[in-house]
Amino acid sequence: MAITVDGKAVRPRIKKSYELLAFLATRHRHAAGKDALLEALFEGRQDDCPVAYLRQAIRQLRQVLPSEAIESGARNINMTTHVALTNDSERFRSLVTQAARLRGEDRSPPSPQHCL
After folding, report:
1. pLDDT per residue over 5-30, tens digit each?
2. Please, what's the b/e burial string for 62-91 (b: 16 or more CB within 10 A of its CB; e: otherwise)?
3. pTM of the predicted structure, to 2 decimals
């Protein structure tokens, strides 16, 4: 997974930061409750260690993303609405939807001579 901010690759120091961002990218409104994050990222463990590690993952994302990109409250974490968050699966789904709308010759695959 790669994280790009304003055209530059950024790298949080811990893997869970990538997993956290990937999870938020798949959620409606790019938001999740902390219980759902603990379930997804730490197999539901709720003891002190996963909770502390989740805090570290959030902190690492805050260090590499724009300062206002992540909001966290007592129970929820979300990406703010002015942040454009995209991922490959969303792009793929969008392209498939666009292709499904094509009709007639526009829907035909290119001829082999165009594939070279």
Report:
1. 888 989 999 999 999 998 988 888 88
2. bebbeeebbeeeeeebbbeeeeeeeeeeee
3. 0.70
